[in-house]
Amino acid sequence: MQKFEKLTGLVAPLDRPNVDTDAIIPKQYLKSIKRTGFGPTLFDGWRYLDAGEPGMDHSKRRVNPDFILNQPRYQGTQILLARDNFGCGSSREHAPWALLDYGFRVILAPSYADIFYNNSFKNGLLPIVIERDALDRVFRETSATPGYKLTVDLAAQTVTTPDNTVFRFDIDAFRKHCLLNGLDEIGLTLARVDDIRAYETRRKQEAPWLFS
Amino acid sequence: MAARTLYDKLWDAHVVRQNDDGTCLLYIDRHLVHEVTSPQAFEGLRLAGRKPWRVDANLATADHNVPTTDRSLGIVDPISRLQVETLDQNCRDYNIVEFGMRDDRQGIVHVIGPEQGATLPGMTVVCGDSHTSTHGAFGTLAFGIGTSEVEHVLATQCLIQKKSKNLRVRVDGAVGSGVTAKDIVLAIIGRIGTAGGTGYAIEFAGSAIEALSVEGRMTVCNMAIEAGARAGMIAADEKTTEYFRGRPYAPKGALWDQAARAWRELKSDNDAKFDHEVVLNAADIRPQVTWGTSPEMVVPVDAVVPDPEKETDPVKRVGMQSALKYMALQPGTPIRDIALDKIFIGSCTNSRIEDLRAAAAVVKGKHVAKNIKLALVVPGSGLVKRQAEQEGLDRVFKDAGFEWREPGCSMCLAMNADRLEPGERCASTSNRNFEGRQGAGGRTHLVSPAMAAAAAIAGHFVDIREINVERAHGDDR
């Protein structure tokens, strides 16, 4: 997994609640057996005016000029502002894969759906829970200021605005540790092989039908 | 020991190790695998030179991509075909049992797990699919995971998890005639919202939940994720135990007796504490229809499309306006005046035999309305399909102008050829009415099987309580 330490990046606002993972990456692209290549079809239904299918040359499609990420000022964005319950719906990890492939490394929202939140950390995408008032302010400033950037420091757990206002955020210690160091969780679990085997031995006594 | 909730008990029984930071290594008893969320996990396993920890804990099937029409020619779409063949190959390589596309036992992963007894009460069950919450219906801790966690379970039989909070949703009293499990869960989501269960494991309880059949309970738990909760669950009871008796993967003989005794404990203690509780009165629940692009955008069938101008929360108001625009609906329109183009009866929410019986009872002797371009019935598994055919339900549907298809996820998410065209409006027994979910530009209204069937006959929504429903067959179970 790629590490995340500190980033100063261009911010893009997606001002709607309940953005579901079907909207983040529609089902037709889930037929891929790879983890990469989902960036060009991120937010496909909103981003393009024509119907997208896997295998198309997406650079030749009709772009929706009204969709926020298509505006010239947000090209090269790495930080997405979002509203409540971002990433709800399907468990598809293709959603964080698509956001990363597009170039996002950080999301700021007041709340996330649990599975999406969890999936993001496994891939080096940092979903930050930010207070509503702070988020409203960042939404306003982003829209008012072309080229608006934020600095996100994971070790310090801070988001810093261009005028040096600092917002602190909370993050689970284990997730922070894994993300800062780019750790493979499977490797960590396999360091506990003895614990797993001991559990299985005990469980076979208590509930043998689970192993029959 | 302090009084515990059902969730506490299931959690405690599966903790391999508690870490200092509060996370736990949680043991997984059953891992269900399908073609869409597993290929990258198997690839990761292979690249790291790892092997599945416990092969027999895995069960695989292809459901999302499979065609629901004649399968003798295989899958036409080469990308879908590759994905299904990749699952076949991975299962062969690692010796994992798979119900392939031509196996009678193939079907939607959340239908076949319980059907086979591969899911059992008291287990932890995971799958790379958010509707894994379905399996909570049996006093089971079941939740959806992403592909990284699919790989983690394959490699270690465990997951690193943090415990959720406890939420109890009680539905007290008895529902009226025509009100089903689907209406109960839609009403719950309407009440608590699509994020109401975020951070919680939900236990559904109360006399209306206890009165449901085991299949109805699956419908309720299936949509826990639509309320934001990864896991929904219901205490096990005699109905639960009887449901599993004799199923292929269920224990036999003395082991069965031992298991059945243990399952009696799969309920919350009387004085267990919940972090939050919501209570609904069953008698107040009417047949539900969603009008928007989120499952919380739901009203009773005798209501009208709501007016965003009356919403005080500005973020919600904008969400309602954009949903109405997408759905091409005007505030104040009676739900019953909404005309439909397609009907979909199927999905992991509502494709089991009782769902098909309920729909067949409505359509028997009648015909689909002229404005309906396509009415589909997609059974949840090959075995559900076979049983329905033995009961003559296929004839009832076909005579009424429905298409009777092969099992799979089908038009719930339209990864195969079954889909809505832009602008088409569908009454669907599935679980998500998101923009484009059933096909780009398609408009989805979520309803119960009986309501979808009645809408097919009328060509628009009708209140199922005003329709005389005859039994579709002599079986009164």
Task: Give structural attributes.
heterodimer, A: 212 residues, alpha/beta, Aconitase, domain 4, B: 477 residues, five-stranded parallel sheet, 15 helices, 31% helix
Measured by DSSP, the beta-strand proportion of chain A falls in 5-15%
Chain pair sharing the greatest interface: A-B, 59 and 76 residues
Major sheet characteristics of chain A: 7 strands, mixed
Helix content of chain B: 25-40%
Strands ordered across the widest β-sheet of chain B: 5-4-3-6-7
Radius of gyration of chain A: 20 Å
The average pLDDT score of chain A comes to: 97
Please count the helical segments of chain A: 8
Strand content of chain B: 15-25%
Largest sheet properties of chain B:
5 strands, parallel
Relevant CATH superfamily of chain A: Aconitase, domain 4
Report what the structure shows.
The complex is a heterodimer of chains A (212) and B (477). Chain A contains eight helices and seven strands. Chain A has 212 residues and is of the alpha/beta class. Chain A has a single domain, classed as Aconitase, domain 4, CATH 3.20.19. Chain A has a seven-stranded mixed β-sheet with strand order 4-3-2-1-5-6-7. In chain A, strand 3, helix 4 and strand 4 form a beta-alpha-beta unit. By secondary structure, chain B is α/β, with parallel strands linked by helices. Helix content of chain B is 31%, strand content 16%. Chain B is globular and about 55 Å long. Classes of the chains: A alpha/beta (212), B alpha/beta (477). Chains A and B meet through helix 4, helix 7 and helix 8 of A and helix 2, helix 3, helix 5, helix 10 and helix 11 of B.
Summarize the structure.
The complex is a heterodimer of chains A (212) and B (477). Chain A is an alpha/beta fold and 212 residues long.
